[in-house]
From TrEMBL:
Protein name: D-cysteine desulfhydrase
Residue span(s) of domain Tryptophan synthase beta chain-like PALP: 109-417
Record SUPFAM superfamilies: Tryptophan synthase beta subunit-like PLP-dependent enzymes
Keywords (A to Z) from UniProt: Lyase, Mitochondrion, Pyridoxal phosphate, Transit peptide
Keyword Lipid metabolism on entry: no
Native source species: Acer negundo
Catalytically driven reaction(s): D-cysteine + H2O = hydrogen sulfide + pyruvate + NH4(+) + H(+)
């Protein structure tokens, strides 16, 4: 394979940084500023196999030398080899996480990664505060959001164990259950979902709203349980009961816990930190995040983010906005995940959990929904009302109440997805979106006889 590589020297304040990247370029004049300044496919300096240096080009502050390199592309190359999606590949952790134990041996390529990072121009920020958005809502797998990253590791383990079906559990609009159902089908595995609903609905068809439509389209087996039974029996026993039943039927089930949040799933967001580090390497003005803000539902995302940020080069403070349980619950739960990796750190030292649950899990006030609507109208970014909507609402409320705490800081907000959950709130949303009218076509505009052509 013939690749064209550019090596460039970024000369800034007497510091010379050398990086290179590859493009498949037909013509020399395809090189333009956009490719050099905005693409995020930088590579760390790898050994050059063979090269012929062409004459240097000077481009703004960058000195570019064109290389024509004939090399076999390796796994670390930015131009990924074709058809790696849905493959199971050996996993090598970031060097700063290689002492964690156990280490996953493999991961599936399920996500559309890296997800973009862009500036988020939120209204009413404290002085000099910048908010950037990491778009894990567009991580692929039918809008699977943050769950994709955990499933890359969990599904690899399921397949290694010879599973022929997956069991998982969650609320009736669980994004995790839907993400699992989709990923399982991509990998030709059956999927069994235990979904928690209200006592009055537990004996009825659950309908096709939001996540349910996708789960049912991909053929997941749905078992309903009432909230009361769920609380009494517990998620672990419920999945055990279903597992026993399937084993007796000769199946080989693999159980994924609520939210995919166990120590193995935690690797998804340890890996996301490596991804963010690599993305930051591509920015010329030394962008550095002081804080990471994210919604917290079952705890796996914050465990991975906070551990990765603490161990790696990012060192950003992680702020978790809890949408269900209280902060103490999450400090303890996250501690269990960290201990499961022998991380040797206290959760309280690496993450700050704040309560953003409001009226309760998946219950949204009209003020919170109005916020989701206003942010969408102001920035084009649609938040889900159950997770990122509550986290962003909590963050901006905290900023309004404690502006000094956030002034001048650069914040990376992780949009964890969950957009299908929005469809569960359409009735509540309706009064907020009244922007329509019948089009006025003046009588003087001539009408054709008959029905006319539609397209
Ligand atoms: C859309 C969305 N965002 C955030 C979260 C929270 O992530 P975690 O369960 O890892 O705390 C979840 C799941 O609970 C989710 O579905």
């Amino acid at each position: 394979m013939q690749l064209t590589k550019f090596i460039y020297f970024l000369i800034e304040e007497n510091k010379i940084e050398v990086q290179w990247r590859s493009y498949q370029i037909q013509e020399q004049n395809e090189l333009n500023s956009e490719m050099l300044c905005s693409s995020n496919s930088f590579l760390n300096l790898n050994p050059i196999v063979s090269s012929s240096i062409n004459k240097p080009l000077i481009f703004r502050s960058l000195r570019i030398i064109k290389f024509t390199v004939s090399a076999k592309m390796d796994q670390n190359d930015a131009a990924a080899p074709p058809f790696t999606f849905l493959t199971r590949k050996p996993y090598t952790p970031p060097s700063w996480a290689s002492h964690l134990n156990p280490l996953p041996s493999h991961a599936f390529s399920l996500g559309h990664l890296p997800t973009p990072i862009h500036k988020w121009n939120l209204p009413n920020l404290p002085n000099n505060t910048e908010v950037w958005l990491k778009r894990d809502d567009i991580s692929g797998m039918q809008l699977s959001g943050n769950k994709v990253r955990k499933l890359e590791f969990l599904m690899a383990d399921a397949v290694a164990q010879g599973a022929d079906c997956i069991i998982t559990i969650g609320g009736i609009q669980s994004n995790h259950c839907r993400a699992t159902a989709v990923a399982a089908k991509y990998l030709n595995l059956d999927c069994y979902l235990i979904l928690r609903t209200s006592k009055i609905l537990v004996d009825e068809d659950p309908g096709l709203t939001g996540n349910l439509l996708v789960e049912r389209l991909v053929g997941a087996h749905i078992e309903l349980i009432s909230k009361e039974e769920y609380a009494k029996v517990g998620s672990v026993t419920l999945t055990d009961i279903l597992k026993e039943k399937l084993l007796k039927e000769g199946r080989r089930p693999y159980v994924i816990p609520v939210g995919g949040s166990n120590s193995l799933g935690t690797w998804g967001y340890i890996e996301a930190i490596r991804e963010i580090e690599q993305q930051l390497q591509t920015v010329h003005n030394q962008l550095k995040f002081d804080d990471i803000v994210v919604a917290c539902g079952s705890g796996g995302t914050i465990a991975g983010l906070s551990l990765g940020s603490w161990l790696g080069t990012l060192k950003a403070k992680v702020h978790a906005f809890s949408v269900c349980d209280d902060p103490d619950y999450f400090y303890d739960f996250t501690q269990g995940l960290l201990d499961g990796l022998n991380a040797g750190v206290s959760s309280r030292d690496i993450v700050n959990v704040q309560n953003a649950k409001g009226l309760g899990y998946a219950i949204t006030t009209s003020e919170e929904l109005k916020f989701v609507k206003e942010i969408a109208a102001a920035t084009g970014v649609v938040l889900d009302p159950v997770y990122s909507g509550k986290a962003a609402y909590g963050m901006l409320k905290d900023m309004a109440e404690n502006p000094k705490k956030w002034e001048g800081r650069k914040i990376l907000f992780i949009h964890t997805g969950g957009l299908l959950g929005l469809f569960d709130k359409v009735d509540q949303m309706a009064p907020l979106v009244t922007n329509w009218r019948r089009m006025d076509v003046h009588e003087s505009v001539p009408r054709e006889d008959g029905i006319g052509k539609m397209f």
